[in-house]
Amino acid sequence: MSDRDFVLDIRNLSVEFPTETELVRAVAGMSFQVERGQTIGIVGESGSGKSVTSQAVMGLVPSPGRVTSGEILLKSTPDATPIDLLAIPDKQLRRYRGGEMAVVFQEPMSALNPVYSIGYQICEAILQHQNVSPEDARQQAIERLQEVKLLADEGTLRDEAKREIEAQGGEVHKRDILKLVGQRKQALLDRYPHQLSGGQLQRVTIAMAISCNPTLLIADEPTTALDVTVQATILTLLRELRDRHQMSMMFVSHDLGVIAEVADVVAVMYRGELVEVGTVDRIFANPQHPYTKGLIACRPQLDRRMRILPTVADFMEVTTDEAGAMQIVERTPDFESQAIDGEGEVGDRSDLERIRSILEAGHDPEAEETAPEKIEGRPASEPPIETVEPSAALSDDEPSDADEIGETDPAIDRLSAIASQSQEIEDDRFNLDNFDLDADSEPMGTLLSAADDLSPPPRPSNKPLTDVEVAQRLAYLQRQPPLLDVRNLKVGYPQRGLFGRARRYTMAVNDISFQVFPGETLGLVGESGCGKSTLARTLMRLIDPLSGQMRFEDRDILNIPAKDLRFLRRDMQTIFQDPGNALNPRLSVGAAILEPMEIHNFGESKAARLDRVRTLLTRVGLDPSAISRYPHEFSGGQRQRICIARALALEPKFVICDESVSALDVSVQAQVLNLLKELQEEFGLTYIFISHDLSVVKFMSDRIMVMNQGRIEEIGPADRVYRRPEREYTRKLIDSIPQGYVPQPIAS
After folding, report:
1. How far apart are CA 390 and CA 710, in angstroms?
2. For residue 359, what pLDDT is reported?
3. Residue 97 DSSP class
4. Percent of the chain's residues with pLDDT above 70
5. Which whole number is the average pLDDT over 658-678?
């Protein structure tokens, strides 16, 4: 690469943080270049040094950290003389920071000042770096907000204003249109950060970053906290702005799917060192370093159903030599990259049809013969649950997916007959019409020969699941009475009117019905505001619904007095998204796990409870000696393990995982997801798994429930919902998943 090509040239950069006991090298000898118009993706786990590298470029390394060696050369134009940002005074550096270089941070609410309007903050950045009047700065702020598509363009604003005037029956005059357009612009400029959503706030920070036409844009985890659909729009916006302004971009992320979407070159960091650099195609198609291979492998794959996820530790072992230097030894993982379309070993044609019946129709014919009363424990007077209707059901005249496919397989004709048989409960929870089971396959033994052979699936291994095994698990689940039974649930937030009276309700959960079976994982997906978290809080009786029924085992949750809810919550626990906020910083880890046991008088004695705390810490992969340490002494993944141990302290039957891995790095996420699956099998747990990441939900779930504006869009087996979505909203969610090239893991 010639010198005239680069915008940023980092040479042998080292950053150190002194502590009471040692000197931590956050970045060790980092060197790379960013070409003009190029996007480099920096990927790695928390603590790898990727954010410290971006902070060093901006001159924002937090104290007591300091840059100990290296050069950071910035060349704003092809003919300019490179400037060493580490060698210039702070006053001169401020002219470059925000002008030639800009940054978009991960958390926009923290990046924006809550006491100033967004218009004031954008104008402040413009006035700081450009010699313009306040009115010109205001006009530029409006243009930047239009550029990031937070404000409509001039033509659209005028058309909307004209329609509004006409709707009010007034005469349309140009001055009235311009006045109304000006009011709308000013209204947006006058809004405060708390009045905008997460995606809108991120657009504001991007508008502020590009307000001075920077040469280099640093995006530090800009989409991590956003829903998949909002993430897709932000990534598209960043690509458009990069091309329009001819910017170079340094994109920091732990999500390899996002990196594959936006980057031209990928730099992989591990413990402060740059372990691999290459084009995005080369890195993903042929990774060389074992750490890179591990990062690629541990991301949940949408085209396969794994029992457990590989982790970075499967690909390498980290040791130190006599001098204390880090050494990485590559390992060959026990990973089988089999295809998932096969059905496994099946018996004769009747066995195949039985499997199909389980996958398609949601019931097992042999189980019906042996257990005609499938759902027990419900009073005979109660009516059956009605089929859950999506918010906008297709009419009978509209063609369905099945009509378009035109199946002619005789087995499917027989399947239709089986599926039309009367059932006590109608539900499409096992309607897997996408499974390609070969009706003419050779008999290879009988896997499902009798209803009483349907036992829980074997312990997890690294071998991908087959369709037969999925059918076996679904059949096992569906023969049990539901653990949780929700009917026609409505939850609303009152909109106060005159004299404080509630004139109407904003429905967060609007007439939904579903069931969760013992040992099942029901995935719950949807955008922010769709009602996921409100539903979770309602199930825990933290919010009272307007109407509906909720039964847990044989208990009517809504009729349990408030003073008796403590006993219900022994069986129902929650794992929250942010473990830092979920744990009391003033309580040691042992005290935090011990607290619920003391509240519920669980255990024979305090000594027995402490023994259980140590056992739980061991089970979630932590050293029992950590019992006296405090939350701030642990990493994010370790804190989430502590939250899991706390949730299991009372031996619950039902756990709500509310975005419980969303804030974790992909490698740590894989470890926590594997742990949740292992604990489910070991303790017989039932999960509702809430996430905006469909790949994670698909890996974890038996069924997926998609919510939109408080209603259930569709509910069905995980593979069917992903492969053959029935609703347009679900297709939109799936299309929003980063589709960057991520090949199958390479075991070498």
Report:
1. 11
2. 52
3. B
4. 79
5. 85
